[in-house]
Design goal:
alpha+beta; three-stranded antiparallel sheet; seven-stranded antiparallel sheet; about 15% strand; Helix Hairpins; single chain; 6 helices; 12 strands; Glucose Permease (Domain IIA)
């Protein structure tokens, strides 16, 4: 997310930062600062709106990309299913071919068995005829009219005249044939089942192919949606960058005018106190060259006093708060006019405890240590200016 929480704070404080109109010519810039505060507020509002548009555009692009990715995953899944089905169909066709070979082999056995039965039947009829010649009766006439074994077997009374051995042989041969025919039937049933499976799988393959073609068209359309969302995101980014540049310029102009204070009347007896009692170590001194976030910062304009977050910050001398706002560089900052052209600045605070127009007495708490703005850790940036020119704070107060 690109929402700038500090912008909201700055926007509210910018309005509060309009100078009170003090008596005397020293505050003739109050109207100008009020105009700059309005401009800054408008720039901040425009920037926040552009940030929101950019967030929306980025979220839309992300959603469209996720949908496109999901579609491509579905497409790959369809390819995998089709490939699996093609393999199964190939396996089934091989099984069908093998089953057909078994059926053909079985049919050959049935044909051979039928030939043996027919030969046995012919031999049987010849022997029966021979028996008829030797015996009296009409059996020969009956055999002349019988055309099959089944018909012959229907003559139960006459069969009793046949030898028991011949009947047993014929029964065995027909039983063997029946077994072969049953096995052939089972093989044909298995083949038909395999055929049905193949037809069903081919139908599934056709449906999957149709689904894949339809999904491919949907992916093409989704790619267009992604391109459109990307274009919107780029446009929103460009708009946000433009609004940011406007805001930076407005902030700089506001800071420039805000730093021109120091023309008020002297308050109190001029006594001073160290802004962070008990914290006397300085991590940076006035005029020092240093690096912040990889950027060179030459001629440091104040002193940096490290302290834990939330440590109370005390105004070093009595005066009037003429600015209390959020700056991109200073973070939460309070500026106090001590009169005689002297201004003290307290920056990078976690929060501010003084408002514009407040009269503060030496030692009053005006904020708390933090690391807002361009800061690399919890500390107080303590700065003093004389007639708008930065001067060493240690020339006014010593660490204690």
């Amino acid at each position: 997310m690109h929402s700038l929480h500090w912008l909201k704070k700055s926007c509210a404080v910018a309005l509060a930062g309009i100078l009170l109109t003090y008596s005397g010519s020293s505050f003739v810039f109050a109207d100008e600062q009020s105009d700059l505060a309005d401009r800054l507020e408008q720039a901040q509002q425009a920037l926040e709106e552009s940030e929101q548009k950019l967030d929306d555009a980025q979220n839309e692009l992300e959603n469209q990309q996720k949908l496109g990715s999901s579609m491509r995953q579905s497409e790959q899944q369809l390819r995998n299913e089709i490939s699996s089905l093609v393999g199964q169909i190939s396996t089934t066709e091989a099984q069908i071919a093998a089953k057909q070979e078994e059926i053909d082999e079985q049919q050959g056995k049935i044909d051979e068995q039928q030939e043996r039965i027919d030969d046995r039947w012919d031999d049987f009829k010849e022997r029966v005829a021979a028996m008829q010649v030797m015996r009296s009766g009409g059996m020969l006439g009956m055999l002349a009219n019988v055309t099959s074994l089944t018909a012959f077997l229907s003559f139960g009374d006459d069969l009793q005249q046949l030898s028991k051995k011949d009947r047993e042989v014929l029964d065995e041969m027909n039983a063997e044939k029946a077994k072969l025919e049953q096995l052939q039937l089972e093989l044909e049933t298995q083949r038909n089942e395999l055929e049905t499976q193949r037809v069903n799988m081919q139908s599934q393959q056709q449906q999957l192919e149709a689904n894949k073609a339809q999904l491919a068209e949907q992916i093409k359309e989704q790619d267009k949606n992604i391109d459109a969302a990307a274009a919107d995101e780029q446009a929103a980014q460009a708009e946000r960058d433009a609004k940011y540049r406007i805001w930076v310029q407005a902030q700089a102009e506001y800071d420039r005018l805000a730093n021109q204070g120091g023309g008020g009347s002297v308050i109190g007896d001029g006594s001073v106190t160290w802004p962070l009692p008990g914290y006397t170590r300085l991590s940076s001194v006035f005029g020092e060259d240093r690096w912040i976030w990889g950027v060179a910062d030459t001629n440091h304009g104040g002193v940096d006093i490290p302290a834990p977050a939330g440590t109370p910050i005390h105004v070093f001398q009595s005066g009037t708060v003429y600015n209390s706002y959020y700056s991109a560089s200073y973070g939460n900052v309070v500026m106090v006019d001590h009169g005689g052209g002297l201004v003290s600045i307290y920056a990078h605070m976690s929060s501010r405890a003084a408002n514009v127009g407040d009269v503060v007495i030496v030692g009053d708490v005006i904020g708390y240590v933090g690391s807002t703005g361009q800061s690399s850790g919890n500390h107080l940036h303590f700065e003093t200016r004389q007639n708008g020119v930065r001067v060493d704070p240690l020339g006014y107060v010593s660490p204690s």
